[in-house]
Structure formats: structure tokens, C-alpha cells
Amino acid sequence: MRSLKAEPRYLQQAGQRRVTIRSRSNGGRRDPAPSRLAFRLQRLWLTPFVRAFTRIGVPVFVVTLALGLWLGDEGRRADAMAKLEDIKLSIQNRPEFRVSTLTVEGASPEVEQAVRAMLPVQLPASRFAIDLVAYHDTIARLDAVKDVSLIVRTGGALDIKVTEREPVILWRTPSGIEMLDEIGHRTASLTRRDARPDLPLIAGEGADAAVPEALQILAAAKPILPRARGLVRMGERRWDLVLDRDQRILLPEENPVQAVERVLALDAAEDLLNRDFTRLDMRNADRPTIRLSAPALAQYQAISAGALNSVKVSQ
Amino acid sequence: MTDLYQAQRAMRNMRKAALQRGVVALLDIGSSKIACLVLRFDNDDAVREAEGIGSLAGQSSFRVIGAATTRSRGVRFGEIDAMAETERAIRTAVQAAQKMANTRVDHVIACFSGAVPRSYGLAGEVEVMGAQVGEQDLARVLASCDMPDIGQGREVLHAHPVNFALDHRSGLSDPRGHVGARLAVDMHLLTVDAAAVHNLIYCIRRCDLELAGIASSAYVSGMSSLVEDEQELGSACIDMGGGATAVSIFMKKHMIFADAVRMGGDHVTRDIAAGLQVPMATAERIKTFHGGVVATGMDDREMIELAGNSGDWEKDRRRVSRAELIGIMRPRVEEILEEVRALLDVAGFDHLPSQQIVLTGGASQIPGLDGLAARILGQNVRLGRPLRVQGLPQAATGSGFSSVVGLALFAAHPQDEWWDFEVPAEKLGGRSFRRALRWFRDNW
Predict the structure, then answer these.
(1) Residue B161 is part of a domain; what is its CATH number?
(2) Where's the SHS2 domain (chain B) (predicted)?
(3) Does the beta carbon of B95 lie under 8 angstroms from any beta carbon of chain A?
(4) Is A189 on the interface with B (CB under 8 A)?
(5) Which domain holds residue A110?
(6) What is the structure's pLDDT at A191?
(7) Whole-prediction pTM value?
(8) Cβ B91–A33 below 8 Å, yes or no?
(9) Whole-angstrom Cα distance, residue A45 to residue A40?
């Protein structure tokens, strides 16, 4: 008896594959209509607010969140900073930025040595390692240096141009002798007066503050300079011109130069300075006064007494 | 009646809201295709509003920014037949148009040609209350029109006041402010099957869209394919669609009659499919490429290959002459035109001063149709294409798109309908306070 199921008409041979032809259900064409969900999603996407939020808001939020999470860890932050520092250093240490030579111009050997010693780093060094402003300030703080300019030239040369202060006067202080320039700024110390016999000497407390005035007085007193031993600042307000033979000219607080000129005029007229006195007081311009020395005074009194007697005799 | 009044007012408000928002979609639900346009309105026409109609009758204020067409499914005779299928087709069209417009559309104005439209002429007459005709007089005269028996399960789709007459003067388009005693109105009422409208509303709701207006496609295609003097002097627009042929008669820029023949291009296709024993798709293709209604001697020699894949070589290799094809098509086209002729006769079209007939719609593209229509309908026949509006793609300028373009005009500058006028004070009933307020406003 045959079964109800028909026998397969074509038996499957070895090496053959069974292929099922499936007809597509709805006329063979895909339904072009969007599903309700797709339709709604597209409408949502076309809503301007949603669009703006998705295209700007969400990326910004995600990036901020990721950065925040990543940087929230202390160690990671330090690592990142270290890496950044490494990169910075590797760029700074490139040969293009290397400074290898240092030339100092216009400085005396002592100053040049000091300038070289003040350089904070060992050459060769990176240009970024030298704080030029601080270095400039350090050099300018030297007493002997009036002005300084620093230039880093291509090829790794650091040029320092120094203008030194010129000493014009000596200032004797209790601790020693200082050399001052024309505005009274200290340039260097001196152990012996003999080292600079060409410079005039001043003394007294606060004398350095009035150096310009002292220079004017000295210029005015040029004819008597061979006799002058120096100027002494008195009470930080006026000058005494000290001469040899223990003589002093007391100059006024105001217009000392005119007082000196007057002294010179008196000297020319009456040979004043060769007289035997200890003090010539010019402080009162109306009434110059002199103090005679003790022998001169005695002699003066003897002379004036003799004259009195002769007058009496003649009477 | 008031229910519909409220519904129409609600839709009008929705339309205003859509214009305020600036984007509105237009949907032509046809039997053979569903077309969707997305309009963008520029809202800077506050000045133009004050002057009345904007330049180019308001057409310059909008621009088409999205257009899409899809094969219609589930629509027969211009009515929704299978809801789910139609909904999917609407979704396809709207999605494509939205994608082209690159914006989201929430408001839709739709038109359809079927649902057995029926026209009624209404007349109302009322004494003018004051010396001049005011808004309230208009409301009263519109309310005084006696409602015809439109039948069970039908709804009013359009209600245009076509003509106002004041005493012995007729043909007034706007009687407000005129001095007179008796005000009369002629109104054109278009009713359709309520079920079709409700189906349409339901379908559009299912697509998450708001319905901002419904129009009859006979009306809107007349608005877009008739030129101004044709609308003024009297003409008929015959929109030959896939499943229904809509007829509308315009006079003095108002639609005075509309009806539809429940036959269209799909029936021609079906005849070809039946006559030549080919699938509908092939028949449609043959109709589009080789169709015609006037046979010449040349057509006997022009053979058309009927390709098929039935597996039967003899069947797949058949050839027919173009004359045979025309022989199949012509009787059906003639039948449609005869029906249209009957409709026009009923409407009294031959009494109009000008009897221009404009053929439009997708099925009007059959070569030689104007000649055939001239024999049946009258001498003044021309083929109409929709008006050109800004931004309309070239693909949507064919005569098949006249109703959707008309919808654009309808959206930009709608004619006043009954529900755009004020509600008569008597109908307001218990709102005596508002009546008192109105009295104060009118009298002080």
C-alpha cells in the first residue's frame, strides 16, 4: 500500500543542496510606508529643539562628562601634568634654544667676574631656564653698575652690555673710605686714601646725599683747592670747607657756592686766607666773621694795648 | 448643524494657528496618488493684512518647501476604503515631504474628491435693523436661510455666501455699510457623506497630525486651474482623478455647484487590464505611454508589446495595436464625459454667460482628450494646469496636482464661509451680558 505522502519525484543526489524558492508575500515589493514608530521618530528628529539638543547638547555633555570623570582621579591628573611638563621641557631643551656663551661688554674685571658669578644657571643652558628680567635686576643691583642690557643673540650667545658708574668723590666714613659717583651713589670701597689722590674727599654723616652740591662747591673753590683737605657735612645740612693749618670755612646752608666765591673775592682783596685764623664763618651773609687763633689773638691784644698806651702817652 | 459649525470654526482656528506657526502641510487624498505639499508662510505680512488681500492674492506670502507623492492605497472613488492602508500611505507622503522640507509639520489641510458631494442653493432674506447693513445683519441673513433636507449622515463641507442683494441691487460681494432695507443672500452649500469625513479625520489623527481644514477637491482644483476671468464669467472645472471625476462650476469667483462622477482613470486602467488580460500595473503603464482616445490610421500599424511573466510564452509575447488600445479606452472616457455632461445639464451650466470648460486632473493627460471632450461637453474646452506657486517642484506642476496646489491657495487666502461670519445675537441665547456689551459697542 502506498503512503498518502507522495514519494519525492527527484531524489537528492550526493553533493546537491536543497534550494527553497520562497515567494515574497506582498507582491514582491517592500512596503514603502514607514512604521508608526519610524514616523514618530522622524517627526521627533525634525523637531527643532530635539535637533539642537541632540546635535549640540548631547556631545557637549558627553565630552564634559568624560573629561570630568577622567580628570576626577588625582593620580591621572598628576600624570597628565607631568607629561605636559615633559613635553614642555623637551621643547625648551632643543638646540635652537640653547645659550652657550656669555660675553660681558664695558665692565671692569671685577664687575665682569661678579656678573658671571651671578648667572643663575650653568652654561650651556636653555634660553627658557634663564630668567632674563631677574638676571637684569640682579646685575643692576650692583653698586658699580649704572645700566645694563641683556640680549640673547641667535647662535646661543648672551650679550651683556654694562655701563659702570664713574667715581668722582671719596667719602670718609667711620668704617672706611667709599667712592661715590656724581649723584652720590656708592661705587666701591677704598682701603687707603692714597689709592685715588686725584679725587676730592668729603666726610660727615649724610654727605653722600649732597654730593652734587659738594661738587659745585669744589668747582667754585678751585683756586684754593691745593690748600683744601676736604669738605665736611655738618648736621646733615651744610658744609665746612676744611683747609690745612687747621683752618675751616663755615659755609651757609643756602647758596654755599656764592659764599665760596665771596671768600675768594675777600682773599684776593685782603689776602684773607693767609691770615692766622681758625674759623671763617660765612653762615651769616651780612656779617662774615673770623675766629683768630690763640697766638694771633694774644698778639692782636698786645698790639691793640700798645697802641692804646701810645695814644695815652701822646695825650 | 451647530455641531458642524463649531467643528468648522475649530478647524479655522487651527488653520490660523498653523499660519502663525508658519508651516502647514497640504494633503490631497486621491484614489491613485496621495500628494503632500509643505508650505512655509512668512509672517511678516501684518501690513498686507490691513490692505486686504496680499500681493498675488496672498500667494507671495507662502512658499512650497516640501513635496512628495506616493501611490495611494486603500482609497476608492476618492473615499477612504481601507483605513490602515490609507494611513500608511499618508504617513509615507507626509514623511517624505517633511524630509524634503527638513521641518516638522503638525497641521494638515486635506482635500478629497469622493464622498458623494451634493450642492444646494440656499436663499435667505431679512430686514436690515439699522440704516446700514452691519455685521449682525449679515449674521441674521445667513441664519435666515432655510436649511434644506440634506439627508441622514451627511455633513456640510462648504457653505459660501455667493451673492448678496440689497433691495433691488444684486451682485454685491460685501454689503456691509450699504444703506438699504431688505438684505437677501444666496448661499451655496456643499454636503458630503459624514462617514467619509470622519474616516479622514480619524486617519489623520492616527498619523499624529492635526486637521486644520477640509476642502472638496472639486472646489480647490477649480481655484487653482481656472484663471481669473474664467472664475468671474462662469466656467466648469472637471478634475479627472483616478477614482472619481469632480465637477465644479464657478461664477463670479464663487463656486456655485459641485458634484462628482464616481469614475476616473482607474476605471480606464481596469478596462485595459480586463480587455488585454494584463496586470493592472502593466495596464497603467500601457495607458500612460501609449494611451489615447482618437484613433488614426497610423495607430493600426503601431504595435505595443504586452510583456508579462506568466510563464506562458504565447501569453507573454502578445502584441496589440494602438488602435485596439484606443478602442478599449475611448468608450470608458466617453462614458465619464457623458456623466459629466449630465451633471452640467442638471446644474444648468448652459445658462451661464461663458461656458468655458477646463479639464484637469491626472486622467486629463490622455492625448486627444480635449477633442473628445469638445464633442461631448461643448466647444470651449481647454486643458488646465495648476497655477504656478513659489517653490513648487517641476514634478508637481502637472495637471494631476491641481487640487493640491488649489489647497495651497485655499490655505493662503480662503474665501469667507458661513462660519467665518458672526453668530447672530438671537442664537447666542442666554449670554445676555455679551448681548448688552454688544449693544453698547454697536450704539456708542
Answers:
(1) 3.30.1490.110
(2) 24-225
(3) yes
(4) no
(5) 95-164
(6) 84
(7) 0.64
(8) yes
(9) 9
CB-based contact, A32 to chain B, within 8 Å: yes
| Average pLDDT value over all residues in chain A | 84
In chain A, what residues touch B103 (CB-CB under 8 Å)?
46, 48
User: Is residue A66 in a domain?
Assistant: no
Q: What is the pLDDT of residues B32-46, one digit of tens each?
A: 899 999 998 876 555
Q: What is the mean pLDDT of residues B12-27?
A: 85
Closest CA to B114 of B37, B30, B236: B30
Strand (E) or helix (H) holding B337 = helix B322-347
The range of the structural domain enclosing residue B132 comes to 118-192
Q: What average pLDDT does the segment B328-334 reach?
A: 93
Rg of chain B taking only CA atoms, in angstroms: 24
> Which of B70, B89, B98 has its CB closest to that of A42?
B98
In chain A, residues with a C-beta closer than 8 Å to the C-beta of B208 are 39-40, 43
Partner residue facing B102 (CB), from A39, A43, A46: A46
Q: Tell me, yes or no, whether A48 lies in a domain.
A: no
The nearest alpha carbon in chain A to B90 belongs to A33
Mean pLDDT computed over B178-196: 87
- B104·A32 Cβ contact <8 A: no
Q: Give percent of chain B above pLDDT 90.
A: 21
Q: What is the pLDDT of residue A151?
A: 86
* A150 and A224 in a common domain: no
- Residues A280, A210, single domain; the answer is yes
Q: Count of residues for chain B? A: 444
How many structural domains are present in chain A? 2
Peptide bond preceding A59 in cis form (omega within 30 of 0) = no
* Whether residues A153 and A214 fall in one domain: no
Distances (CA, A) of A179 to A147, A204, A211: 18, 14, 11
Domain count, chain B: 1
3-state helix, strand, coil split of chain A in percent (to 5) is 45, 20, 35
Residues of B in contact with A36 (CB under 8 A): 91
A48 touches chain B (CB under 8 A): yes
| Mean pLDDT of the A213-238 span | 88
**Is any Cβ of chain B less than 8 angstroms from the Cβ of A43?**
yes
3-state secondary structure of A300: helix
User: Which chain A residues are within 8 Å of B104, Cβ to Cβ?
Assistant: 43, 46-48
Which pLDDT score, from 0 to 100, does residue B3 have? Answer: 62
